[in-house]
Amino acid sequence: MDLIVEAVTQTPDPVVSITMRVREKGDRGVVQSVVLFLGVSVLSGALAAGLAIPFAGLAGFTTEKTSDTLQSLPQQFDEVPLKQKSTILAADGSVIATLAEQNRVPVKLSAVAPIMQKAIVAIEDDRFYEHGALDLKGTLRALLQNQSAGTVQQGGSSITQQYVKISLVEKAKTPQEVADATADSYQRKVAELRYAIAVEKQYSKNEILEKYLNLANFGDGAWGIQAAAQHYFSVNASQLTLPQAAMLAGLVKNPTGYDPTNNANRAKERRDVVIKRMLELHVISVAQANSALKTPVIDPNKVRSNKLGCGNGPYPFYCEYVVSELENNAAFGKTKTDRANYLKTAGLTIRTSLDPKIQADAQRSIDTHAKATDQAIAAITIVEPGTGLVKAMAQSRKYGSKRGQTAYNYNAPKTYAGGYGGFQNGSTMKAFTIAAAIQKGIPLTYKINSPSPLHLTGQTFSTCNGPYKIISPYDPQNSTKNVADPTMIQAAQKSTNTYFLQLSQRVGLCPIAKIASSLGMYNAQSLQPLQQVPSMTLGVDLVTPLQLAGAYAAFAARGMYCKPWVVTSVKDSAGKSVSIPGADCKQALSQEVADGVNAVLHQVMEPAGTGGKLKFGKSDLAGKTGTINEAKAVWYAGYSTRLAAAATVADASLPYRPLQGQTLNGHGINDPTGSGTAGPIWEAAMKAALQGYPTTHFVAPSDKIQRGDVKSLPFVNGMNPDDAANKLRQAGFDVTVASGTVNSEETAGTVAYTDPRQRDGAPDGSLVTIYVSNGSKKGQPNTPKPPQNTTKPPGGGTTINPNCPPWNPKYPNCGGRGHG
After folding, report:
1. 643-686: per-residue pLDDT in tens?
2. Using CA atoms, how far apart are residues 221 and 234, in angstroms rounded to an integer?
3. Which helix (H) or strand (E) segment is 391 a member of?
4. What residue spans of 1-91 are helical by DSSP H?
5. DSSP H or E stretch at residue 460
6. Which of 295, 583, 588, 696 has the fewest beta carbons under 10 Å from its own?
7. Res 618 pLDDT > 90
8. Burial class (CB in 10 A: 0-12, 13-18, 19+), 597
């Protein structure tokens, strides 16, 4: 151990002793260079610095050049804005990530331990408080020492000059500007001196020292004294001890070479040099020096990570989504590049909507049901109804480039950095058809004969751009069994494809598309509106869990759609709030229509529904399954009044293949379905996330919503089909004639019956299908009557009997409350 046993004897003035030795050697060139240096300094009106300028070059640097250089420089030094790290926080204040070019936390000099101030002055500029911009003694000492050694051994720059140099490098915006700011040229040295003189005029010594300590590089990604103290020792700058301060003071000379995390021995040697210099200057006592020299240079257990960026945080995908949102905000710069730079240098505090508890619940559910190395991927987003706040965003593959890792965010559209762009969402689209039907006045008990397969070739669907006629063969089927003539509720419970295809034909694709768009649904790949095609209600284009959770949250919020958002507040480095967009909410659906959707989707999670096994707790829940062609992706989206979530399991690797046989949670998928494959992920996440929330119920739909806005259909049985069609159109209905004939007691070629039936009535403007009789005396087939399925709507209120015709004074059996 290199201990100091007694006080160091004061040595003669180093400049004098070195000068005497030079004279003894008869080095006339050195003396001449020194004289010339002093002459130039006097003639220029300031002392031109030369930390490591070889003596031989000074003779060529004329007084005229010096004077011209000084005259061209400004009289004031514009202070460089400190590049400060920005911090992204979760809703509870915990750190999500640090964004920075330089990890820096500026502090006042009063917040820096006095021993740290003494250590940096002792080793870098011990006469700092005695000289002006240039320390003549220090400069001459460095010049002479370097000349004697033949190499650069010492620097002579004052702390003020060092501050100027670092500032000029910080101001540089291009590689060439950086090169100019660090060039080993006399012009650069003189420029630094002139700026240093300006700095000395503008600021006090303590102010200069404060600026220097906040600007200096302390190695290993730590810029400024506060960040360095926290990084290496897990303390604030105000708490630094002598050995800690000495180590940090020694770092500024060579932040990389003396980095204790890379080379503890070199760092200790350098630290000990600082301690001994402090002793020489009588800043510390022998006892203090000996104690400090015995102290280990660093405790590895107390080194804090300086890892920056979203990729090094606990929620990298969510974090990148946040950063993308901010980079799209014009308030942070004119261009995306300007905004990205601002976010990394402005010292912002960015608070987000992420709830660590709910995020953990979502990730735990994902990890329980899927593995990172699975062939299939799993993802889920949870959104708060009524605010649009994104509470959680989780997926099975981790962030990175190794096996089982990805840079794609499977929850986000292409508008965000790394956004995968979604998957086809299957029958979760039926919710928007239900909303459009209810909005049109179609009752929840509306029946449609729903065969499987359903022959739709030649049929026409209306769109916002006109009619769409199916030319190619199209014979969709049902994937589940249901009654022959299901109601809207029964069709939703069993996800009956042919019912919803016919319902969408009667409602029209334009109203469905408009509702979906108003609830944030669009193609997450192309960013274009969803296609209006006959299969729209069965899933169309590509959407994300984020979009779907946000849309279903609007149903939970009684029609109030809030665009999903993540950034709740931004404050600048001074703690002042920065103006950002807040909640973006609108009443996209009437409350009554949303209540009707909730009543229908609530029944999906009752025992008779495809989501019945996913029901939990006492709160009302609603949801919908989704499975696309060949089961390349399956979904479950659902909600309570407090939280809404959308979960998917999908193939995310080209070429896309059916999930059948692919691995999920390490096992092959035998029967991929929305309820059985994606549903358990949704259930586990939501069950955990809703713990602690009070029990809530949906508002029961009104009688008008339940029974629809219907009017009587004209009686047309037995009429010529063309005459019947005209009569129906005059009554305000759209009409189509079914191909082929049906068994009926009516005369062949006349109307056998209509769908909906004359006794049921229909909403104004809805589609009525005419079926033509073949004249058979066998009569109409005796379709088995579906079982009674009287259900109680969510939240109590009027019961719903799916088999009772809509209310109409002509049909008293369905009149009054308590009947459906």
Report:
1. 999 999 999 998 899 999 999 999 999 999 999 999 999 999 99
2. 15
3. strand 390-395
4. 14-25, 28-44, 55-58, 63-72
5. strand 460-463
6. 583
7. yes
8. buried
**Do 646 and 623 meet the contact criterion of CB atoms below 8 Å apart?**
no
- Write out pLDDT tens, residues 186-204: 677 777 888 888 999 999 9
Helix (H, G, I), strand (E, B) or coil at 395: strand
Report pLDDT for 322: 96
> Is 620 in contact with 816 (CB distance < 8 Å)?
no
Q: Is the dihedral of CA 437, 440, 445, 449 positive or negative?
A: negative
* Interatomic CA distance for residues 740 and 744, integer angstroms: 13
d(CA 744, CA 243): 102
Which range, of 65-74, 433-442, 576-585, averages the lowest pLDDT? 65-74
Average pLDDT over the chain, rounded to whole?
Answer: 85
Cα–Cα distance for residue pair 57/60, rounded to 1 Å: 6
Please determine, for residue 144, whether its predicted confidence score (pLDDT) is greater than 70: no
Distance separating alpha carbons of residues 88 and 767, to the nearest angstrom = 54
Residue 530 CA from chain centroid, whole number: 24
Is pLDDT at 581 greater than 90 in this prediction?
no
Give me the mean pLDDT over the 725-731 stretch: 95
Which string of DSSP letters, residue by residue, matches 97-109? EEE-SSEE----G
**CA 359 – CA 382 distance, rounded (Å):** 8
Instruction: Say if residues 224 and 255 touch (Cβ distance below 8 Å).
Output: no
Q: What mean pLDDT comes out for the span 149-169? A: 74
How many angstroms separate the CA atoms of 535 and 635, rounded? 17
Helices 205-215, 225-233: inter-axial angle, 10-degree rounding: 50
Summarize pLDDT for 737-776 with one digit per residue, the tens.
Answer: 998 999 999 999 999 999 888 887 888 877 788 999 999 8
Q: Cβ of 657: how many Cβ atoms within 10 Å?
A: 15
Query: Which contiguous run of DSSP H or E holds residue 668?
Result: strand 667-668
Give the separation between CA 92 and CA 107, rounded to whole angstroms.
25
Give the whole-angstrom CA distance, residue 271 versus residue 267.
6
The Cα 445–Cα 819 span in angstroms is 12
779: number of Cβ within 10 Å = 9
DSSP-derived secondary structure letter, 12: P
Q: In the beta sheet, which residues pair with residue 634?
A: 627, 649
What are the domain boundaries of the chain?
1-74+110-218+282-298
Residues 699/592, Cβ–Cβ less than 8 Å: no
- Alpha-carbon distance of 531 to 426, in angstroms, equals 14
- CA 789/CA 609 separation, integer angstroms: 12
Amino acid in the structure at residue 727: K
Closest to 261 (Cα-Cα) out of 243, 245, 247, 246: 247
Cα 783 versus chain centre, distance: 54
Question: What does the block give as tokens for 261?
Answer: 């995390």
Residues 6 or more apart whose Cβ sits within 8 Å of residue 260:
232, 247, 267, 268, 297, 298
Structure tokens at 17: 């002793």
- Please report where in the chains the tokens 């899927």 appear, as a residue: 370
pTM of this prediction? 0.77
To 10 degrees, the CA torsion angle through 713, 719, 720, 725? -10
Give the sign of the dihedral formed by CA 435, CA 441, CA 445, CA 451: negative
With a CB cutoff of 8 Å and minimum separation 6, the contacts of 185 are none
CA distance 369 to 442: 39
Per residue in 461-479, pLDDT (tens digit) is 999 999 999 999 999 999 8
Distances (CA, A) of 207 to 104, 129, 371, 380, 725: 18, 12, 56, 52, 91
Which residue type occupies 703? Answer: D
Give the pLDDT score at 103: 85
- Letter for the amino acid at 333? G
Cβ(738)–Cβ(770) below 8 Å: yes
The angle, 0 to 180 degrees and rounded to 10, between the axes of the packed helices 28-44 and 136-149 is 150
